[in-house]
Amino acid sequence: MKGNPELLAALNALLSDELGAVNQYMVHSEMCANWGYEKLHKHFEKRAIDEMKHAEKLIGRILFLEGIPIVSNLAPIKIGSDVNKQLASDNAAEIGAIKAYNDAIILAGEVRDFATRELLESILGDEDRHLDGIEELQDQISHMTLPIFLTTQV
């Protein structure tokens, strides 16, 4: 099935975002592991895997629509030098992803590709949960202070 060229471009842009997110979360995960924060390491590692699954779904849909997945473009990666900066970078990335998915969902509806819209809505739900998880950790830090929070992440 030949897909709409504008929608295929949007799907490739989302793929670029997801591939960048995989790398950002992976680096944050390994940094936390290096610092001995095993719970944060697992948190970031799970997010990297989630983003990888999103990329896989987008690649599958692009191929179904007879497009060419562009996997050589990565969205800008912002590595935080400490946990607060990591969470701030991840928060900004998730907010950007949510906006991009909402825009792509509108476009998919406009071009009457409701299967793609449904796929994008599913991924958007995951991105909403990711943002909620980040904000939860940021709230814990603000309530406990960073040093106390970090003692809970060992």
From TrEMBL:
Fe cation 3 binds at D50. It holds the Pfam family Ferritin. PROSITE patterns: FERRITIN_LIKE. GO terms for biological process: intracellular iron ion homeostasis; iron ion transport. GO terms for cellular component: cytosol. GO terms for molecular function: ferric iron binding; ferroxidase activity; heme binding. Heme b binds at M52. It comes from the Bacteria. Residues 1-145 form the Ferritin-like diiron domain. PANTHER family: BACTERIOFERRITIN (PTHR30295). Iron-storage protein, whose ferroxidase center binds Fe(2+), oxidizes it using dioxygen to Fe(3+), and participates in the subsequent Fe(3+) oxide mineral core formation within the central cavity of the BFR protein shell. This is Bacterioferritin.
